[in-house]
Amino acid sequence: MPGLRRFSQAISEGDGISVIVDVHTADQARVALDRGAEAIALHGPVNGLADATELPALFCGSDSPDEAFECGADAILLTGLGDEDLPGLHARALELGLDCVIEVRDEEQLEQVLELLDPEIFLLVGDDAEAALELLPDVPAGKLAIADGRGATSDEIAELERAGVDAVLVGDAPPAA
Description:
eight-stranded parallel barrel; single chain; 35% helix; globular; alpha/beta; TIM Barrel
């Protein structure tokens, strides 16, 4: 069952940048919650997730909205840019009540996505935090921007926050102590 808050609401409310943590186990989800994460990222089903946390979940496992829904996700990451199936996948995700996060790697992809879908949430992906900073000015006002910050330093995350990025996707939560 999806979380109590929509994914988009979780990453847009409050002060500062929201943190989305990759999790693979229910224990990691609990640790993410305890450490102040605003959302989690799933790559497949996680046993006991519903009992571990009420954080909204972003499904990053595949471009299948049905699989995301079955895993209890609140949102799906769609990466099929340039794929003629992207509008259909986007429509199916919305039909299931999922927020859609669209991955973009450069200005050209961002323009293509805006022409096709006009989505509300983007994941800005590149080799480093600087790539997200370069793409951020091209994200239309009123849209949410998530930076792929896996491997980013705390200084880079602070720079993303100052630039106006709404959320950062970080690496795995550590195992519970």
